[in-house]
């Protein structure tokens, strides 16, 4: 237990921490007052970690080096601010706080109450929602909380009301079993994974498909867009309890106003998973019919993609569902993660500033520039472009699988991921598509001109990658790889991740 360690150990630690700053000042020729609090904190944080595990300190540093030297085009990733990261690195991680603010199963939660309430208030103000719940540990958890809140409100509560019973714990074993069967027999209509939906929207191998009787909608085979007329017919046929909108690989806006009408026409609860595009909603890129908050009963999100916060999830909902959503613990979750809720509050505060709206709008401008240049370079861009943060390309015409193209790009120092495309002939593992996103490079400050360069480097690499009778092996011409490396390095030298952190100094130290 470290409290009982000798005073000498503490003194040694203090000396070490002081020495990294002293050493850094000597190395950089800077004054203490020249350093930002973030850069100081980063130095000291790594040093403190290294006193326990140099391996982990080096792992963190190596990841920073990797993220600095590759172009990050993973559509679901971003670069969170150092204050967001620091808010997670403290003793809040030690606190149990099951329940919700001012209604906890543990004593001593006053400070967590303040932190959680602050995050909730920031979320409701930012998105204009009636209610926010910031405890889900991830987007998958947020979806489970939402599903079960809907099931509780629409299936369990009416059944209890009919029986005149307040709490399901008081049901007889027979009534409880009958309720469980009814809960497990509800219908969900969501977007097909192969068309751009998400695993948690009813994919067979995910718990969502085991909880619900699932039907899926796809995209129009020619346009690659959601066909709302076809969806309306399908909804009338299926009559789902939940109509779910949202995606992880669909490059277009969704008309939530239209989807709300479809949900109403069949008496469904309208749920939106805005995990990918929450930042575009927060930054008012998606407004009017494209703003899900105005139309959905319940909206889930991750906090770490376009929203640029810590890894985590969140649920926003109308008043009707608030008390059910707040029961995410114990319904689905265990104890909340107060340090992550603190980091969510920091990120939500950042997203409430006018600069975030500029950032969000630049994400989309950049994605469009990327798509246009890819098209000009001869790539097959699905749906002909984008109006959000992501671009999908079909590498089938290049005679590559998504897996080969993903690996070739990574060799060229472009990090992106392979993705299925609608009716993919290569299946979900090898795939025929690549998914590219602009949130991270936009955080670095890149603009349309840089996106054109990124598209041109990627096209150079893909058009010089070849394969023979394999879905895995490939080769890239040495010349194009060398050229790609030079051009990537040149771009990244002008847009440095966390420029206040002196990586060469840290490399010598760790
Ligand atoms: C639409 C959508 N929902 C949910 C999730 C799950 O988020 P997490 O990985 O945080 O569980 C993702 C993640 O990719 C997503 O794209």
What key phrases describe this protein's structure?
510 residues, alpha/beta, Aspartate Aminotransferase, domain 2, Aspartate Aminotransferase, domain 1, 3 domains, seven-stranded mixed β-sheet, 50% helix, binds pyridoxal-5'-phosphate
CATH topology (fold) name of the largest domain: Aspartate Aminotransferase, domain 2
What is the strand tally?
Answer: 17
> What is the C-level CATH assignment of the largest domain?
Alpha Beta
Coarse shape: globular
In CATH, the architecture of the largest domain is 3-Layer(aba) Sandwich
Integer-rounded radius of gyration: 25 Å
Helix-strand layout with pairing:
Elements: H1 7-28, H2 37-52, H3 54-69, E1 71-72, H4 82-86, E2 99-100, E3 103-104, H5 110-127, E4 131-133, H6 139-163, H7 173-183, E5 187-191, H8 207-211, E6 213-217, H9 228-238, E7 242-246, H10 256-266, E8 269-273, H11 278-282, H12 292-295, E9 298-302, E10 313-317, H13 319-325, H14 328-331, H15 338-351, H16 354-376, E11 380-381, E12 390-394, H17 402-411, E13 414-415, E14 417-419, H18 427-430, E15 433-437, H19 439-443, H20 448-463, E16 465-466, E17 475-476, H21 478-494, H22 503-509
Bound molecules: pyridoxal-5'-phosphate (PLP).
Residues 76, 138-140, 143, 198, 200, 246-248, 273, 275-276, 302, 313 line the site of pyridoxal-5'-phosphate (PLP).
